[in-house]
Every structure is written in structure tokens, then in C-alpha cells.
Amino acid sequence: MRGNSHVRFLGEDVTARWRPYPTSRHSTMKKAPLRRLFYARPPVQPGTGQKIQINKYVSLCHPDGAATLYAKQAHVTGDREEGMSAQASKLDSPRLQYQWPEPPTAKALDRAFPGILDGAMLLSGGANIILQLALPAVGYGVAESRVTSGSILHHPIKRSRTTFTYLSVALMGTSEEKLAYRTAVNRSHAQVRSTASSPVQYNAFNEDLQMWVAACLYWGFMDAHQKLHGPISRDKQAEFYELARPLGTTLQVRPETWPEDLDAFDAYWEAGLARLHIDERIRDYLMMIADLKFLGPVPRVLFGRLNRFMTTGFLPPQLREQMQLPWNDRKQRRFERTVRAVGRLSLLLPRIIRQMPYNLVMWDFRRRLKRDRPLV
Prior knowledge:
Blueprint: E1 3-9, E2 12-20, E3 36-38, E4 51-61, E5 68-77, H1 106-112, H2 125-133, H3 136-143, H4 156-172, H5 175-189, H6 207-229, H7 234-243, H8 246-249, H9 262-274, H10 280-290, H11 297-314, H12 317-323, H13 329-347, H14 351-354, H15 356-370
Parallel strand pairs: 3-5
Antiparallel strand pairs: 1-2, 2-3, 4-5
Helix pairs in contact: 2-6, 2-10, 2-11, 4-15, 6-13
């Protein structure tokens, strides 16, 4: 099978010319559904004078969904590699981001926004998952996902590590690290698409869906930080908003899709909340997360009620209603006292302990990247 075809490479449409896969080499891929090797060069940022070099294998889905192609991962370099047999071309849409500003360190983030990467912020994790999955296409994309290795119900520790790693790489990773993690996530996302029996149509590469998930992540950081540590000025919110752009652009959200400023984001957020709908199937799925039913009986008994209480408290009122989670003024006052106390106690700890969840997964990510081990 030879010739040109349109494929998705690192989240972009490219035109590639490919040739039969050499089955005598790379034995780890001999079980691929379609043994092919194709070379592609995605576009780079204009005016940088940089090229794309190919150096690792990643799996990609053929557009018709019938097979998997194997291509080499691309990264930015200063030299052009000889032997490339295809030039990626931008088809109809602007290109993804391949270069980002120098990222802040965990210490710099804590200095500018004390407690923003503290482990205490994870109290809002369940509510943020509900926010993301309340958009029907996202909810069914997760609930129906065939990638069980990335499911929180089947592999909660691995799923948590993957999520925290993405947040850490997006906020603190270099351009090369972001591209590496984009490639790893793309391999999993390539398998997440709706079927004929799905109630809604979805595709994990859909930019609109990824924009909503990224918006939830940014909103979650700001909302949880203010609930734990008090109000933040509008200027400081805008400062963090600029730093948070890679929460979307690390994957398939184009830079121009990310709302231009905080006012534009607020408008996008309000419009997004109006699109949310939780039906019975997604509600049952989300309640398993709120009640920690994916964990063993001991942690479920010890922390299940607390997690549901925290999850309910961090949710916007309209989602509490859709989740059918009861709430009143007395619970609200108890929630506010609890999270403010947790926030004050958290800031008494040394930074290295407060930030351990994020720093630990970042260390693990860099170790895996260095040793060429799976990132997701």
C-alpha cells in the first residue's frame, strides 16, 4: 500500500507519502494492525528558522479508523534531517503551537501565587472532573472510552498521575517537554471517538472539547485558590491566566482559540456553563467518582463522605442541581470554614512538602522521558 494520504500527526492534518513498514526491524511494533512507516514534517512556528526532525515512533489512527499507522515523533531542531519523504502541509486551519515562552518554576509560581500548586488544591479535583464531563461530548467520551488503561475507574493511580503530569508539564515544562507529552497523549486520544451507538458525537482531538477541558482546569486553579487562600486581584488573575494558556495549547487548542483576555474568558465561561447537561448515565458515572467507589472499601469508607462534601462545595450551584446533590446555607458555612482552615494550615508547611504532588510527578515525567519510557 503506497501513495499519499491525509492523516493526523501530532494533532494536525498532514499530507504524507508512505512506504511498507520494514517488519524485520523494530520488533516491538510487529503486532501493529497495519505495518507501515511514514515520514512527516509538521509546520513550525513562522520566522524561527527551525526545522522538524524525526526521532521516535508514535502510533496514529488512520482517518477511516480501520488501522493504525506508525510514524516518528517530531521535535524542533536547528537542522533538517535528510531522507524525509513527506512535507506536512497546513490544510485549512492555523497550525498548533510548537514553541512556548520560558516556563516558570514551581518556586516562582509559589512566589507569585502562594499555594497555587499545593496538594491542598486537589480537594477540588472531583468537582473539576464533573465540570469537564458535564459537557455531554466530553462526558460520553470518557464514559465510553475504550482506553481502559487511562480510566480512573480501572486504574485510579495511573489516571491521577497522568492528569497531574499534564498540569505540571503544561505549567512548568519546556517546549520540548510539552511536545513530548502532546505526542504521548495523542496516542491515547486517537482511540477515543464516538460510535454509531453513541448518544452524542465526540472525538478526543476536537478542539472545542479540549478548550472546554482546559478552561475548567484554569477556572479550577483560580476558584480553589481563592476558596483556600482568599480573593485574588483582577490583575493577578490576569497574570495567571497568561501563564495558564498552555493548559490548552499543549494539546490541540490553537493559540488564537484561547480567549484573548480575562474578560473574553469570563464570557466564554458563562456561555460554556449554559451548554452543560448531565443525564442519568453520566450522573451515575460521576457519582462513582464523587463517592470514591473506584477505590477499595477502606479508603471509600474513610474518605468517601468527605470527598462528596468537598466535591459538592466546589461545584457551581447549577451543577449541584444537575448532580442532585443537596446543599444549604449551613453546609456552605461549614465548607468555607473547612477549606479556609486547610488553606491556612497548608501555607505553614515548607514549600517542597506543599508542592510534593506536582513536583513528584514532574520528576517522574522527566525520568521517564530521559529513559525513553512510556509517558502516559
